[in-house]
Amino acid sequence: MVFEGLLARVRNGDRAAEATTQSQPAPTRPTIGLALGGGAARGFAHIGVLRTLVAHGIVPDVIVGTSIGAVVGGCYAAQQLDTLEAWARRLNVRSVLGYLDINLSGSGLIRGGHLAAQLETELKGSRIDDLPIRFAAIATEFNTGHEIWLTRGRLADALRASYALPGIFPPVLIGGRWLVDGALVNPVPVSAARALGARMVIAVNLNSDLFGRGTIISSHGSDDDDGAEADTAPKQNGLRRMFSRQPSLRRQFLGRRGRPGIPTVMVEAFNVMQDRITRARLAGDPPDVLISPRLGTIGWFDFHRGNEAIAIGAEAAEKALAGVNEAIAALSQPYSVNGAAK
């Protein structure tokens, strides 16, 4: 009888432990959002970031992108990331020049028709409404400054509008609004990812590695030789290096020796503005995890360095994995059967 009583208590204890285990539901993973920032050619790093996250089981439920971030995020959402990556890895200086249909009489120095045709071909008429995950491309209405979230309609049109860098590409007309690059208002769109339902946001800032920008020069003035032309041309990079093999285009497009050409002035001014806006917006609405690929050596127009940018993005994501998993664990919550949080 004593042994039967002991056995009964053991069995009852096992049942109680099993009931306790069954009553505690497994944690529910938070909805994950990716906010992919702008940065022209540096944006190929987003491919490496996405590949690494997905390979480790961190699959986004929401993607919001600005400029090149919209292109990479949109292609992923449309299940065309393989195609985009293969294209990026094939690019060289000559093939990049083939996409630059120069237009000195329009509202942008580059018509963008060749690049738009490439997008149309690869995206095959995809619509944002039909994508398997939530997606938005950020653009700017240039005459009002409105921040426009493109969440429906033709995907290729939305991507074109999001990367339409003012002065370089012409504005894109969508729904009665003329739209340009979204980096004018939201370079790393954390706020949009949260608004679309992301409980946890991973942001990728492509321009954090530009050291020495945004400081204060507290004492400066004119010199006696300010009016003299520089005798030596500045170091060639980006567009200037690309066009160095095309003398006629170089003269038309890049200005005189020793002085910055129109594209250089526009892009560098855009860089300054984007850097200041990014700092302010990330400070006001920080992501849960910030990935900052070390891309300082890659210029905005170094599209022929896709392999390098992808590798840098993958490396940055690998380093961030511990922080990502920690954030997922912290934001995971168990739920009861009826959906109420325990």
Helix-strand sequence: HEEHEHHHHEEHEEHEHHHEHE
Poorly predicted regions are 230-234, 336-342
Total DSSP E strands: 10
State the assembly state of the protein chains: single chain
Largest sheet: 8 strands, mixed
Radius of gyration from CA coordinates:
25 Å
Arithmetic mean pLDDT: 83
- Structure classification: alpha/beta
Helix content: 40-55%
**Shape estimate:** globular
Kindly report how far apart the N and C termini lie.
Answer: 42 Å
Strand content: 5-15%
Figure out the total of helices. Answer: 12
Write a compact overview of the structure shown.
The protein has 342 residues and is of the alpha/beta class.
Task: Please supply descriptive tags for the structure shown above.
eight-stranded mixed sheet, 342 residues, alpha/beta, two-stranded antiparallel sheet, 12% strand
